[in-house]
Specification:
Length: about 475
């Protein structure tokens, strides 16, 4: 039977998305948009949580573990020798050109590329036995974020938000700062079949594609969010318009027992309206002291951009955002390793050290899980004269705070860093462990879709209990 009010409601909701609240309200809205429960409300965990928030420092392009955090003296000793492993195609070993030293009470080894971060080794939990399935960027990057690479699936941040809700209903529960544009792009922070409100809200720093938004007065010096301001209507008029549209939407729900599109419209529009008042102020970094900004390297050429991202991440977590991802790209060093890796590590070293110090002095680190990782590692043998190829069989990621053991080096690769041999942690294990630290059982955090209960770890994943405090 033709239902004219319901049809009109859908049209009005879509129209309001383009006129009144735009990108914030309807970015990627799916047909399974929302459930009737308040998805923004804080939810009980499966067991006591060690962490309440996550900051994921994502290094897109796969940093070289053997030049940063995985000390391999034998690799340096055998520099120039032909690697005997048949899979190496008879390439010559490339010893790290950087020195490694032990730091902190833990005596953790770290490359000289990280002079600032090395002061925080006793807060870091190194995972040296990481491995994944394929050495191709798009597939490995999607697996890092969603657990799979063949299908569209919800991201880690979306699952965390779905399982926990948020601590601030005026802000999104999942924010991605300078989100990845390659290797799957929005699929890395999308909600797929989860309610659309669980997807990441992108905030772009220095992206020329969003220059128009800056001209329309929708950007602060700290970042850009599409359509955060309405240049045509005052907040009071927007509220009046929204109330009218929402009344139509609610009448539609009275006529139809269930309409996920309209339910999603109601929640998305309300969140977008609330964000207009709180988000711009939160993104304004000028309220921070000069000492705090300097601690992150803001104002310095090499560290300004990533420093702003890290400081924004701290501000979002402090305001109650559940999951924040910060992306640093261009870590794919097939050539010019010595110069390019030096430049990349310089750009993140001081900002990350500043983030850890800032979280700690504000008593936030104990409740905030900070994660650093790329999609895989690099080979111990050379590609050309000064580069490294992809290596999915062994690499390093690290965690800090949020209930992890500081000063711990867990797992290892072989003598050359080619393959994880002890304390092996697959991406499914990594995901299961992150959820566990948040108080979520990865086997119980499910969503019914396509006839079965779906989860982030599919049918795999083991929690790495050894790294927990």
């Amino acid at each position: 039977m033709f239902n004219e009010p319901a049809l009109y409601s859908r049209r009005m909701a879509i129209k309001s998305a383009s006129v009144g609240f735009g990108y914030l309200a309807f970015a990627g809205l799916s047909t399974m948009a929302a459930e009737k429960e308040n998805l923004l409300a804080p939810k009980p965990t499966h067991f006591p949580a060690r962490a309440k928030h996550v900051i994921f420092l994502c290094m897109e392009g796969a940093p070289s573990h053997v030049d940063t955090f995985d000390y391999k003296p034998k690799l340096k000793q055998d520099h120039g020798k032909t690697m005997s492993d048949a899979r190496s195609r008879s390439a010559k070993l490339l010893g790290s050109p950087w020195d490694f030293k032990q730091h902190g009470q833990s005596g953790m080894w770290m490359s000289e590329l990280f002079p600032e971060l090395s002061r925080h080794t006793d807060d870091l939990c190194m995972l040296h036995g990481m491995h994944t399935d394929v050495p191709a960027h798009p597939q490995a990057f999607l697996r890092l974020h969603t657990g799979v690479s063949q299908f569209k699936r919800p991201s880690l941040g979306s699952w965390a938000f779905y399982g926990l809700g948020t601590e601030n209903e005026n802000l999104p529960g999942f924010v991605t700062i300078s989100p990845p544009r390659n290797n799957g792009g929005p699929s890395n922070y999308g909600s797929a079949f989860l309610p659309a409100i669980c997807q990441g809200t992108p905030i772009n720093l220095g992206n020329p594609r969003f220059a128009g938004a800056r001209r329309r007065g929708q950007a602060s010096p700290s970042g850009i969010v599409g359509n955060i301001k309405n240049p045509q209507q005052s907040p009071d008029y927007q509220r009046l318009q929204l109330d009218y549209i929402q009344s139509i939407n609610k009448k539609t729900l009275q006529l139809e027992e269930q309409n996920s599109e309209v339910e999603g419209a109601i929640e998305s529009l309300e969140l977008a309206f609330r964000m207009q008042s709180e988000l711009p102020e939160l993104m304004e970094l000028s309220s921070e002291t000069q000492a705090t900004q300097s601690m992150y390297g803001i104002g310095e050429d090499a560290t300004n951009n990533f420093g702003r991202q890290c400081l924004l991440a701290r501000r979002f977590v402090e305001a109650g955002v559940r999951f924040v991802e910060v992306t640093s790209s261009q870590w794919d060093h097939h050539r010019n390793l010595q110069q390019d890796l030096t430049n990349k590590t310089e750009s993140i070293d001081k900002p990350i050290a500043g983030l850890l110090a800032d979280l700690k002095q504000r008593d936030l680190l104990k409740d905030t899980l900070v994660i650093w990782s790329g999609e895989f590692g690099r080979t111990p043998y050379a590609q050309g004269d000064d580069g490294r190829d992809h290596n999915h069989r062994g690499f390093t990621s690290w965690m800090a705070g949020g209930g992890t053991k500081g000063g711990l080096s867990y797992g290892s690769t072989d003598d050359y860093g080619a393959e994880a041999v002890e304390g092996r942690v697959h991406i499914h294990d990594w995901h299961a462990t992150i959820l566990h630290l948040l108080g979520l059982n990865h086997e119980q955090l499910t969503y019914r879709y396509a006839g079965r209960d779906m989860r982030l770890t599919d049918v795999k994943g083991n929690v790495v209990q050894e790294i927990m405090s």
